[in-house]
Design a protein that fits this description.
This protein is of the alpha/beta class and 343 residues long. It has helices at 15-22, 26-33, 41-54, 60-67, 81-86, 88-102, 116-130, 145-151, 176-189, 205-220, 237-250, 262-274, 292-296, 308-323, and strands at 73-77, 108-112, 134-137, 156-159, 170-174, 195-199, 230-232, 256-259, 284-286, 303-305, 330-333, 336-338.
């Protein structure tokens, strides 16, 4: 900070103060602030030391006028607002992306667009240049957001493999199909043969891939898939309760359930408890995500762990690379079977 001529309130340090302190030109300071291109290591260290000493803070608005960038990123959730607060996965992912961007001094803006009107408003905001790129979460097939962003030239990374757009949109995903295969193999290893499943929404990549993994393992074991044991869910606890009620009605001899999310699995456990079905003695239950819901369930859930920290970090890495001019990229990360008390 610098005192004014009358000794009154201090003014914030400027780029000129940094240049004077570092003994370099204003242009050198500007180049350091914009990535350090064509700056010697000695000059860069001198500028960084001067920034620390003076307490200089970048004026993002002024820099955006020069660079044409906002220096911010949007976290766009295309789900109803209540889902954001109910599903712990969204909060885990948001926290991870916020932390990964903080390392680059880039703020993250949370955007909820669960209705067509909300989507139109958000799209106007994004395409007006208020963010440099978008981390897109929970995109259903038929949802036009990814297409609209891509057509507008907005850098975009989806969480999960976009249905029908895998070659056009950058994405980072856990290996949903392989994770489901691991869970069904585990249930079979316990001697269970009447294994039902509560799927995720079948217009989402996770819903499709996890169901495919379930079907593949049963087929490999020579077990015909009984379609009465396949019930669609919506990733909510209430959806899990409704699906479990239907499963028990259709197949009273059910001895295991693979549930496509931990939150739905909590609903399944509640229904089984009310029906006096012991878990895992009568019916084994496996979830997916290894979210906080897995640890608050009773019994604690055997589940498939998604590597949320790595997913967040990779989404940010791929998006920043795309903002920097690189082509779209796809990253698929391995899952891990976590065995607890429910199966």
């Amino acid at each position: 900070m610098t005192m004014n001529a009358t000794g009154g309130r201090r003014r914030p340090p400027t780029i000129h103060d940094v240049a004077r302190e570092a003994g370099v030109s204003r242009g050198t300071v500007s180049r350091v602030l914009n990535g350090g291109h064509y700056v010697s290591p000695a000059a860069q260290e001198a500028v960084n030391a001067a920034i620390r000493k003076t307490g200089y803070v970048v004026n993002r608005h002024a820099r955006s006028l020069i660079t044409g960038r906002s220096d911010s990123v949007g976290f766009l959730l295309t789900e109803p607002q209540e889902r954001f607060f109910e599903d712990p996965n969204f909060n885990v992912l948001l926290r991870g992306c916020t932390g990964a961007l903080a390392a680059h001094d880039i703020p993250l803006l949370l955007m909820l667009a669960g209705t067509p009107d909300e989507r139109r408003r958000i799209m106007r905001y994004i395409t007006a240049g208020h963010v440099d790129g978008v981390l897109l979460v929970s995109s259903h097939s038929g949802d036009p957001v990814a297409d609209e962003l891509r057509d507008a030239g907005v850098p975009l990374v989806a969480c999960g493999k976009p249905i029908g757009q895998a070659s056009k949109v950058s994405y980072v995903a856990a290996d949903d199909r392989d994770g489901a295969r691991d869970m069904v193999r585990h249930l079979l290893s316990l001697g269970r043969r009447r294994i039902g499943t509560v799927t995720g929404p079948l217009d989402t990549p996770g819903g499709v891939e996890r169901l495919a993994g379930y079907r593949e393992v049963l087929a490999e074991e020579g077990i015909a898939v009984d379609e009465r044991l396949v019930v669609s869910g919506d990733y909510s606890r209430a959806g899990g309760e409704a699906a479990a009620t239907l499963l028990l009605d259709r197949a009273p001899d059910l001895d295991a359930v693979f549930v496509a999310s931990d939150l739905m699995a909590q609903g399944v456990l509640a229904v089984l408890d009310r029906a006096d079905r012991r878990v895992p003695e009568d019916i084994a239950v496996g979830g997916f995500d290894d979210s906080p819901a897995a640890l608050t369930a009773r019994p604690e859930l055997t589940t498939v762990r998604q590597p949320w920290d790595r997913i967040s970090a990779e989404m940010v890495r791929v998006l920043l690379a795309q903002i920097g001019g690189e082509d779209p990229a796809a990253v698929i990360l391995p899952t891990e079977l976590v065995i607890r008390g429910s199966a």
